[in-house]
Amino acid sequence: MSLEYLMDKHAIEQVYIRYCEIVDAKTFDDMHEVFTEDATSDYTQALGPGVISPNRASLIASMHANLGPDSNCAATHHNVLNFRIAVDGDTARAKVQYYAVHRGKNEFEGALYSMWGLYDDELVRTAEGWRVANRIYSCYLSEGPAGVTSKAVNRAE
């Protein structure tokens, strides 16, 4: 392993840590620190057919709607682990596992919704640092009412 690879790997890991900080602080407009402007995100496996964000602005709007102040989601805590990163020049491929817990509010008051899954990402080196250009988001296991994190679910389970 070269020093350059280790530096790139560390920088990419910091992108995922920053993602968790932004989501948990609910400062979604800071996602420019994580995603390219034209980043695509496919949440179909976790959230249902057709849940695809064609760019960063769409992803941020979805986060505001489903996790923001007008959503059914109060506090959250996101964690990332098991980083598998392959760097090839100015591009990289990363598979990173996550665990996230979300506290419900409104009709979901007192509920917890937990998820375990994978971020399967393509990243690019930009002038500002590494950014996610494409994400496939998978959820392998969840517990609790999904309505905590999705306005598409209208009732507590």
Describe this structure in words.
With 157 residues, the chain is α+β, with helices and mostly antiparallel strands. The protein has one domain (3-148): Nuclear Transport Factor 2, Chain: A, CATH 3.10.450. It is 25% helix and 45% strand. The protein has helices at residues 3-25, 44-47, 56-67, and strands spanning 35-42, 52-53, 73-88, 91-104, 112-126, 129-143. A six-stranded mixed β-sheet has the order 2-1-6-5-4-3. A hairpin with a 2-residue loop joins β3 (73-88) and β4 (91-104). The mean pLDDT is 93.
Brief synopsis:
The chain has 157 residues and is an alpha+beta fold.
**Global geometry:** globular
**Strand order across the largest sheet:** 2-1-6-5-4-3
Helix percent band: 10-25%
Task: Tell how many strands the DSSP assignment holds.
Answer: 6
Mean pLDDT: 93
- CATH level 1 name: Alpha Beta
Rg of Cα set: 16 Å
Percent of residues in beta strands: 35-45%
- Predict the CATH topology: Nuclear Transport Factor 2, Chain: A
Briefly note the structural class of the backbone: alpha+beta
